[in-house]
Every structure is written in structure tokens, then in C-alpha cells.
Amino acid sequence: MRSSGLGLALGALLLGTPARGQEASYLPVDRIAAIVGTTPIPLSRVDEELNLLLGERQRSGQPMPTDSAEVTELRRWLLDRMIDQELLVQQALRDTTVKVTDQQVQSATETAVQQTRRQFNSDLEFRRQLELAGLGSPEEYRRMVSDQVRRGLLTQQLRERKTERGELRPIPPTEAEIREFWEESKRQGQQPRRPATVSFRQIVVRPRSSDAARAVARSVADSVLQALRAGEDFATAARRFSADPGSKEEGGDLGWFRRGRMVREFEAAAFSLRPGQISPVVETPFGFHLIQVERIEPAEVKARHILFAPEVSDADRAAARALADSVAAALRAGVPYDSLLRLHHDPLEQSLFDDVSQADLAANVRTALEASAAGEVVGPIEVEGDGRTRYVVVRFDLRKPEGEYTFEELRDQLRTRVMEDSGLRHYLEELREQTYIDIRL
User: Fold this and answer.
1) What integer is the mean pLDDT of 80-84?
2) The domain spanning residue 296 has which CATH number?
């Protein structure tokens, strides 16, 4: 799924999809490019993928096709990839252990669409460029991205499940195979550029609720627990009471998760329950939880939860801000970072960021670090997210400009990718032998 960086070449006429309002003299509408099993792949979908690929190439300064023969070669290469994905999607839909929730799709879709939207100065410009590229309105574009996200999540989970079951066996590649993959990815415009990155350490101070606020939240959790044990529907109660914005509207549904994905207290409770059973009140750094396990597999569970988050008052936030000010002052005065980290850092937050893309940072953190020098202490920076306020104190370490990756920088990643792809390629060859495929491009 390639959603970021879409827009900078959306209006290019050589992409193979005519702009709206223009007559397509050489590209039949609704032409079928291939059939996989009983599922057709329209040529319009292939050309949408071609639009995205060429947009990324133009944005990153990579070579563009110079004639129709090169465009045709790219289109055929993309169709081959789309056939592989369709084979995997069909297998994922047959595999009962593969579960993709609407919430997962909505969240990933929103992230992808917003990444694209931020490349334009206004909604009007965003809409105009989508229309010029034949991608329709923002609503139509969102539906296209949502479909791609769902398919990507299905294939990703299928690969994970088959790897866990030993059905995808990676084959260690030779140096020549790694080099060949590197060169081919460059020829196809798939070689990533190294983004502008920064390295820094942070101490995150989180406002702490008062004992009175915690007692109120615990009391509400106890009351809801009694109602659930008396027969109230868990999903309905989650939509009414939960303070978790990520699962509230889904009735508290967390989907499937394995050990190591949740905080310790939550995980211990969830993996001790039987299907249908509701936990007692569980306290974590986020607040108080009620958990209901729906299904169990050997290494993972499918569960719902209701979060009761203690109220954080203005006084609590002011106290946290004052503490963050003192942490920043201490760092500037030479107090060792590690000592302050042990005393004041929120354990739920990451402390070390090494070569992280500037684009992945929260907007106010990115702005605060734009002119920072090595060794400088920045902050406190107020950060909002997931319904929580945090105060971040940063010790800035290093900045690297955008550029091309070298083979040596990516060698380990390339080796892993080629090794994983070898097992997947063998599996896809089996699927191609077992499935009716009619290529018409």
C-alpha cells in the first residue's frame, strides 16, 4: 500500500488515466486486465496503481518512463503484483485466523489520506489534483485507499499467520541475490529515499490524577462491572462508558493480540480469562479496565475492554508542567539525563529516538526541533494525543538531511526482505498453479 507522497505528480497526463472531462481515445473504460479465480482486475485499477507509482517517482526525483513501451512494461509489472495480492487476499478471506477490523481499516485509511492531504495548501487544491489525475473526489479517493488498506492488512496478517505456523519458510539469499533485488527495486522506482531524520532523547512528564479522581473512576468501574454481571451487554456498555477513543465506537473491540502487545497488568488479566468471562477491575497506568475475552488461540486472544480514565484537572496539568520545567532546568544545569529519566519519565512513552523521520514527529515537536543544535535542551513541549496531555523535554543529538540510501545502509533490511520474499514466492507459485488466472493485458 503506497499512500504517502501521492499528490505531487497527480496531474501527469502520461499516467495512463485520462483527466475527467477528457475523452479516452486509447483506453477502453471497464476493460478487464486479468481474472484471478472468479475475480476480475479492471485495467482502471492497474492505472490507479501506475498513477501512484509515477507520482512517487516524480516526487523523489527518480527516472520517469520516456516512451509508451516503458509505460506498458511498468503496467504489466504492476499487474503481476496485483495478481499476487489478489491470490493472497482470497486465501486470507478463507483463513479463519485472519481478522481485520473496521477500526483498523478506518485508522490506517485516515492516516494515509491525511498524509496525502498535507502535501497541498488547501482542500480546493487537493480536490483539483485528484480530479486531474482521474482519482475522483476526496470521498472517492478515500474509498479507494480504504480498499487498498483492507487488502494490505489481510495479506499482512496472512503472511504473519503462515510464518507462525511454519508454512512460509524463508531461504537465506546469496550476496548476488541481494544485489539483484537492490538493482531491480531501483529500476522499478521502488528504492526508498532516506528522509530527513533527527536523533534525540526525551523525558515525558505525564499529569497524574488526584487520589479523589482515581477513587471516582474506580467507583464507576465497579458499578458497571455489577451491571455486566447482571446481564448488560458488554459492547453497549463500552460505547457508553469507555474513555478509549480507539475502541469506544467499536464496542471496546481490541481485535486479536499476542503477548507483549499490551501493558503488563492488562495482559496478565486478559490471558487468564476464558471465552465469555469478564475480568474484575484491572488497574493500569491508563486507568481502570474491564476486559471480556471472546476467543482464544494458543498464542493470542480476541478481547474487548472498557477504560475508566480518572479525570485530570487543570491543577494536575499545572503540577506536571512545573515538574517538566524543573527537569529541563536540571538538564541544562548538567544533571545526567539517565538520572532524570529514571526519576521522572513516563514508562509508557519511548525515550530514545534514533534516526527518526522528522515527518513522523508531532507537529509542535517537529517545529520545536527545527533549529536545534547537538546537545541543546528543548522544551518542555506540550503534546496532545490519545486523549492525554504530556510535557516533553528533549535533549537533541543529531540531524541528517534527506538523501539516497547506500546499499551498505540497507544491506540487513534487504537480506531480510529477500529471505522473506523467497518463502512467499514459493507459496505464490503454488497458488498460481491451483488457481485459474487469465491475463488479458
Assistant:
1) 90
2) 3.10.50.40
